[in-house]
Structure formats: structure tokens, C-alpha cells
């Protein structure tokens, strides 16, 4: 394994100079800094995070990976994370993956390079086998995202229960032809998969078989919701209700449905997920599954700081409550 001595030998600089570069010492010339960083990259040398923590060399910076900051759910979540981090003398850097695997890995490399002390991942694009090796460089915590792995700390909700509650709510309202919108695929793992499973479980319990044409995958925005309605209107066999894994998508569905003369909920009942402020602005007001966003952000920061300050590796899972908020759209 490469050491600081190897970097010093390759660059022709002293170990103390290399150390000052690694620790962002202000009185180092740009030429020496560039020389050291280039050598570190070439031989794959990265400072030992545990040793640096023991010496007090931390950046007091938390990285937060979100898929899209324009999604209000993630905006509110980041707001909660940033405020709690600031109270604890940490700054926050926001990384937007745009659902791209390469961008996610680029941001994880900042943990490897010790530019952040820990990372909160609110979504996952790569397979866990690809992400897990980065945990040797510093704490990684999953927030609002879930993988069935015992090696990683999580702050999560019972997504399966939330989707089950929402779907059964529509069934109890008399609906049998229930469409479903998901932000991911209908198979795989993680938050979206758990919601898919909850939807399917409720349908199975009541011996209902969803039409494959009523399953809409990778829908994230208001515009996506509008497109869903346009697709439904072209069908011969139309659903009477839609469960959406996003308040944004649900809002788009309501807007487009009304523009096409449909009455909500008489012609089409709609339920969302998150309970964003948008849910009370849209007309009619949106029935949704409430996620405690503020508490999620606070707990994530509290747990990550514990992990960063612990000399030993620690893994903990926190599960927060979830509830159905019934409004006018169902």
C-alpha cells in the first residue's frame, strides 16, 4: 500500500511538506501542491482517515448527495440537514447526481480524497457492491434510501408500509383499477422497490391484478405527471385511481386531468407521497403519505456526526414513523 514516504520520494519533497499539502496548509506554493497531488493520484495514495481524525485533521464538511435539488422534497431535506449541521459547526456541500452513476462515484471520490468528512446519500444509483468500498475512507449514511445491508447506517421510513397504506386507502374508497407511478423501475432494490412491493402487496391482498399498462416507471416531475394523464386518456381500459410515489407527479396528474375535463376524485382519484407544501396548494388538495422530512434530516446529521467522531466503526438504523394524510383528491 502506498505511503506518504512514497509520495515524498517521487516528488523529491520532504514528508513534512507533503503532509502540509495533504492538510491544506496555506503557505505552500501552487507548484509543490500540484506536484504532490499528481504523485498521490499516480500511485493511488490516500491519507488514512482514522489517523487524520486522531490528529484533528478534518474539514468539518459533510457531503450530501441528492438526485435533483429542484425536487422540493430534497430541497426541504437538505435545508434540514444544513441547519442541523451548522448548529454542530459543520458546513454542507450539496452534490447533485441527476440519477447518473458516474456523477455519484465522482462525489464519493471526494470522501476518498478527504475533501469531506462524511457523506449522506439520499439516493443510490450504483450497485451497493460499487459503493461499499468507499466506506473505508469515511462514514457513509443512507437517508431516505435503503439497501438490505447490515454494514451501513440508515435513517429510513417503512416505504413498503407507506405504499401499502396509500393503495389500500384507494381500494377502501371502492377503486379496483389502480394505476401506479414510480420514480425508479418496478424491480430492483431500494426505496422505490419497497414502495412497489407495498403497492403489489395491497393489490394481492384484495385479489386485484394491475394492468401492466397502468404501471408508469421513472416518473419524477410535474411534467411527468401530465404525460401520465395523456397516456391514460389514450387507453381503452382506463384506471379510476392513481397512486404516485411523488407529490410532484401527483400534482401534474391533477393539473392535466382537470385541463382535460376530468373531475378529481370523481373521475380519477389521486394520492401522492411526501406531503410537500405543494400538497395543500394544488386544487383539490392532495391526499398523500407524509414523510417527516425535518426529523429525517436532523437524525441523519446526528448519526453521521457520531460516526465521524467514533474511533470504532459503528452501524445504526433509525426508522421514523409514516402516516396517511387524507385530503380532497381521494
Describe the structure.
It is a single chain. This protein is an alpha/beta fold and 330 residues long. It folds into three domains: 4-47, 434 Repressor (Amino-terminal Domain) (Orthogonal Bundle), CATH 1.10.260; 56-157 and 293-321, Rossmann fold (3-Layer(aba) Sandwich); 159-290, 3-Layer(aba) Sandwich (Rossmann fold), CATH 3.40.50. It has helices spanning 4-11, 15-22, 30-43, 49-54, 72-87, 101-112, 128-131, 159-172, 191-205, 222-233, 247-259, 278-281, 293-309; strands at residues 61-66, 91-96, 118-121, 140-143, 153-157, 178-181, 215-216, 241-244, 269-274, 287-290, 317-320, 323-325. The strands form two sheets. It has a six-stranded parallel sheet, with helices on both faces. The chain is elongated and about 75 Å long. This is Transcriptional regulator, LacI family. GO terms for molecular function: DNA-binding transcription factor activity; transcription cis-regulatory region binding.
Highest-level CATH class of the largest domain: Alpha Beta
User: In the CATH hierarchy, what is the superfamily of the largest domain?
Assistant: Response regulator
Category from helices, strands and their pairing: alpha/beta
Total discrete domains: 3
Question: Biggest sheet, strands in spatial order?
Answer: 2-1-3-4-5-11
Low-confidence stretches: none
Helical stretch tally = 13
Topology order in helix (H) and strand (E) letters: HHHHEHEHEHEEHEHEHEHEHEHEE
Under CATH, the topology of the largest domain can be stated as Rossmann fold
What is the tally of beta strands?
Answer: 12
Major β-sheet annotation: 6 strands, parallel
Q: Give the mean pLDDT.
A: 88
**Spatial separation of the terminal alpha carbons:** 60 Å
Q: Shape, please? A: elongated
- The helix content is 40-55%
Q: From the 3D coordinates, which CATH architecture of the largest domain would you assign? A: 3-Layer(aba) Sandwich
Strand content: 15-25%
Radius of gyration: 23 Å
Amino acid at each position: 500500500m502506498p505511503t506518504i514516504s512514497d509520495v515524498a520520494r517521487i516528488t523529491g519533497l520532504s514528508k513534512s511538506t507533503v503532509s502540509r499539502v495533504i492538510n491544506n496548509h496555506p503557505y505552500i506554493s501552487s507548484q509543490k501542491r500540484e506536484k504532490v497531488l499528481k504523485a498521490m493520484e499516480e500511485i493511488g495514495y490516500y491519507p488514512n482517515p482514522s489517523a487524520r481524525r486522531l490528529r484533528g485533521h478534518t474539514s468539518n464538511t459533510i457531503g450530501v448527495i441528492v438526485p435533483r435539488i429542484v425536487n422540493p422534497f430534497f430541497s426541504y431535506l437538505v435545508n434540514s440537514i444544513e441547519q442541523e449541521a451548522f448548529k454542530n459547526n459543520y458546513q454542507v456541500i450539496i452534490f447533485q447526481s441527476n440519477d447518473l452513476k458516474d456523477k455519484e462515484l465522482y462525489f464519493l471520490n471526494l470522501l476518498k480524497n478527504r475533501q469531506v468528512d462524511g457523506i449522506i446519500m439520499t439516493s443510490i444509483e450504483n450497485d451497493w457492491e460499487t459503493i461499499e468500498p468507499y466506506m473505508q475512507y469515511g462514514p457513509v449514511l443512507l437517508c431516505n434510501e435503503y439497501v438490505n445491508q447490515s454494514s451501513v447506517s440508515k435513517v429510513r421510513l417503512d416505504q413498503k408500509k407507506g405504499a401499502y397504506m396509500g393503495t389500500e386507502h384507494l381500494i377502501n374508497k371502492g377503486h379496483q383499477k389502480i394505476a401506479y407511478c414510480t420514480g425508479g423501475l418496478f424491480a430492483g432494490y431500494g426505496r422505490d422497490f419497497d414502495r412497489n412491493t407495498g403497492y403489489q402487496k395491497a393489490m394481492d391482498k384484495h385479489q386485484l391484478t394491475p394492468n401492466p399498462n397502468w404501471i408508469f416507471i421513472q416518473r419524477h416531475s410535474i411534467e411527468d405527471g401530465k404525460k401520465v394523464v395523456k397516456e391514460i386518456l389514450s387507453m381503452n381500459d382506463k384506471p379510476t385511481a392513481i397512486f404516485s410515489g411523488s407529490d410532484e407527479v401527483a400534482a401534474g396528474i391533477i393539473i392535466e386531468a382537470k385541463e382535460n375535463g376530468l373531475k378529481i376524485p370523481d373521475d380519477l382519484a389521486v394520492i401522492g407521497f411526501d406531503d410537500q407544501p405543494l400538497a395543500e396548494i394544488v386544487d383539490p388538495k392532495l391526499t398523500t403519505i407524509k414523510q417527516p422530512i425535518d426529523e429525517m434530516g436532523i437524525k441523519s446529521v446526528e448519526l453521521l456526526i457520531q460516526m465521524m467522531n467514533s474511533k470504532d466503526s459503528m452501524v445504526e438504523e433509525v426508522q421514523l414513523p409514516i402516516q396517511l394524510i387524507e385530503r380532497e383528491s381521494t
